[in-house]
Amino acid sequence: MLETNVLEVTDLRTYYKTPRGPLKAVDGVSFTLHKGEILGLVGESGCGKTTLALSVVRLLPPGARIVSGKISLHNQDILEMNEEKMKGIRWKKMSIIFQGALNSLNPVLPVKEQIAEAIEAHEKTEQNNVAERISTLFTAVGLEPTRQENYPHEFSGGMKQRVMIAMALACNPELVIADEPTTALDVIVQYQILDLIRGLRDKLQISMILITHDLSVIAELCDTVAVMYAGKIVEFGNIFEIFEKPKHPYTRALLKSIPKMEGSRTRLLFISGSVPDLTRPTPACRFYDRCSYAQKICSEVEPSLEQVAANVSVACHFWRQIEKQ
Amino acid sequence: MSAVESLVVIRSVKKLFPVRRGLFDRSKGRFIHAVDGLDIEIRKGEVLSLVGESGCGKTTLARLILHLLNPTEGNITFDGKDLFSRNKGEMRKLRQQVQAVFQDPYASLDPKKTILQVVAEPLVVNRLNKNALDLTKRVRESLIAVGLSPPELYIGKFPYELSGGQRQRVAIARAIVINPRLIVADEPVSMLDVSIRAEILMLMLDLKRELNLTYVFITHDLAVARYVSDRMAVMYLGKIVEIGPAEEVCARPVHPYTKALLSALPSADPRARHRGVQVKGEVPNAIQIPAGCRFRPRCPYAFEKCAEEPQLVKVGHDHYAACYLGEEIT
Asked: Which end of chain B has fewer CB atoms surrounding its CB within 10 Å, N or C?
């Protein structure tokens, strides 16, 4: 493992128990995240992106189980750890900003106490020290340090998201996972938050996984991108390569389905059909039913994620033809 | 402007909501100025989009047009007739011509009703169906029109059996079943997945052509607004700050707020990343509207004159903006 590799996920499978049999939410996912890198995880609802994130921090809901695979954080196997040891990792080594976290602040406590709680639960520090650290954190995320006395209802949506980011950074983690951090925010505030995340990354050299369904947020912020479909990564690699020369038909279709601010208003392309039911056996290539390039082989042989260029991996039998178009 | 016929005319409409008072609250007599003296025309056959951040009043305006709210001041006419007249029979007829499509297809369809009952509801409540057979026929036609065919497959189902995209199609089928002339769509695609969004947008535009509809399209997504609409109106704190042809407004915005919105938009091209925020802060609450130009406290170009509230002035062909800088440009 290279010195700069922060997180390495190998062939991870996370299944949910359902009355109809296991739902394979994450089904054989591998990727590496480097120091100071922002990885964008994009895909439709139900593609497994949140399950993947929860697997990494081992905070899966009841009924979900990591069936196989390996998750290494700095060469430490997370899946081998007991819960006690895991507590020492969470927040200190990696933290997560949950989806809809804006509303998960305790309304009857000043935000200061909530951040202090996170720090004190994970580190032995002096009271004075904590207060000082919260002030530093508030400054870092662009909030007045005096605001830490306030209650959550005294903050706007954008400011609450800043508080959440401050909380995630409280114990100086190396890895931060953010699940849809700007989805509930307005454009201008979204821009301010993205700018803040970018600045923090540059300054602190933290690694990030940014989960979103919004391709333009990915384009704005990420260095690498992983496109997920039905529990698998179908395309992975450098942001510029993937946005300019998408090789997987799903990535291509996604990029063509969003209205652009420039150019003429041509008809949008869309992907007909819907995501397959992951409790049932799926065709060899999971995108088979919705793919316009699909041929017989796609229903028989599952395409594996193969490296096809210096910085790009793709899971499609026909990527060469698709790339040329 | 007079060359094009207006379907809806909104004149100096205000909608104030009283701020609810708690036990020790001293905010007696305070109001939220959701829509604060607004004039706009909706032209026959156009797609007019209303864009702006949360709290700008776009949904309140939509609810006023839908007659779900009464204006505090001002009036709204539909096809020349007062939408808030006292004549109940006439009002009922007018209201049939305006239908709504809402944001969340999971919440807007009654979970205990079959798709047949959901889509038939506007016909039933308006007593427009001749008999049960006619009712089913019209529901089927409507379902086919929105691409849910064969309709037999869907008619007996319940909303939970459908995907998000299919549900939104049902909501659209319900809106068009009584042949309205105007559809007010409030964020109709923002709850849907990216791959389905495009499909629903295309469907709505196709229906508009086939059925000669007029749309008021509310969205916070400027790229969607630019894509679907003929004209775009940008709202800020209960007022329209800029209105004009959609492509024109996006390509040559005049009002600093429109400029800020556009420049904050993440680009789908990673090579076009931008840095440096132009606008600081967030939208102030709509209880204490800033005096003068309401964007003044956040505006990077504000000067003395902005202490007086600017009116919409012509800044290009069919393009109006409420900013003194706009005047200087033309």
From this structure: N
